[in-house]
Amino acid sequence: MIIDGTQIAAGIQEELIHEVKQLKDKHHLTPGLATILVGDDPASRIYVSMKKKACEKIGIHYEEHTFPGDVKEENVIRLIQKLNQDEKIHGILVQLPLPSHLNEPSVLCSIAPEKDVDGFHPANMGRLLAGDESTPPCTPSGIITLLEKTGIKIAGKHAVVVGRSNIVGKPVAAMLLNRDATVTICHSKTKDLERYTGQADILVVAIGRAKFITEEMVKDGVAVIDVGINRVGGKLYGDVDFERVKEKASTITPVPGGVGPMTVAMLMKNTVTAAKNALK
Questions:
Q1: Structural domain tally of the chain?
Q2: According to the model, what pLDDT value does residue 162 have?
Q3: Exposed end of the chain (fewer CB within 10 Å): N or C?
Q4: Is 51 a catalytic residue?
Q5: Is 189 a catalytic residue?
Q6: Which of 49, 77, 112 is the last residue before a domain boundary?
Q7: How much is the pLDDT for 234?
């Protein structure tokens, strides 16, 4: 089965449209999201545009703040501090990656944890590790939702995560562990990688290398979640050799149309949740 992330994300957005309408009708509250874009990276502009369109569809108030690539760090943090105090903004998202002269942890840490809808603040990452998923990172949350909505049992399964980034690898491993999977994390220094990927009941791949996982590296019946987005010769490819691996997998996500749409949907969900929390 090929998992249709676009369709599942659309269903989540429909639910959020209803929730936002209720917040407006009952509490006169409109959830608000502010994005911050530094520089002129084409991919980042596309991602920000997708988030804007999703906000418009769901009924979320949206603000976009842009800086030139050579902006001083204190100017970015000053804006974040202003947005932290803005009652009409419930979520703040800094589009990554940032230019190298900016200290990414310092910038992300300046976001108030309750407005950190990306789930990257150390306070929210710490809560995640402790089992509190009130503000989960968007891509890992999307991965778990894909598995659950397609009826893939997680408890008791051996989940192998290839990649250890703070954005995907580490948090998705924690979320799988929270659901009683046995989790193995692999990375660039792992020896005999195929020995581990070949044992996986659930394989999550987020390493940024096109078609890196081949059919020889997986077992029959594996559930494959491909997080990679690699542009090669004008075409998009995942980290998994989709055409070959799909012949052995029981379920697999395509690229594009798999995890990507879910990341945006989870961002919208986190923003609506943050607005609800503000009511309390």
A1: 2
A2: 98
A3: C
A4: yes
A5: no
A6: 112
A7: 86
Options 21, 24, 26, 51, the catalytic residue: 51
Does any domain span residue 216? yes
Instruction: Provide mean pLDDT across the span 224-253.
Output: 95
pLDDT recorded at residue 262: 97
Q: Report the alpha-carbon distance of residue 233 to residue 82 in Å, rounded.
A: 42
In a domain, 117, yes or no: no
Domain contains 8: no
Assign residue 171 the CATH number of its domain: 3.40.50.720
CA distance 81 to 72: 15
The amino acid that residue 82 corresponds to is K
- Domain assignment of residue 19, yes or no: no
- For residue 47, the enclosing domain spans 28-112
Strand partners, 225: 204
Candidates 116, 118, 226, 239; catalytic one: 118
Label residue 163 by pLDDT band (50, 70, 90): very high
CATH of the domain at 74: 3.40.50.10860
pLDDT value of residue 190: 97
Q: CA Rg, the chain, in Å?
A: 19
Instruction: Verify whether residue 95 is a known catalytic residue.
Output: yes
Question: What SS3 state is found at 252?
Answer: strand
Task: Tell me the H-state helices in 153-255.
Answer: 169-178, 193-197, 242-245
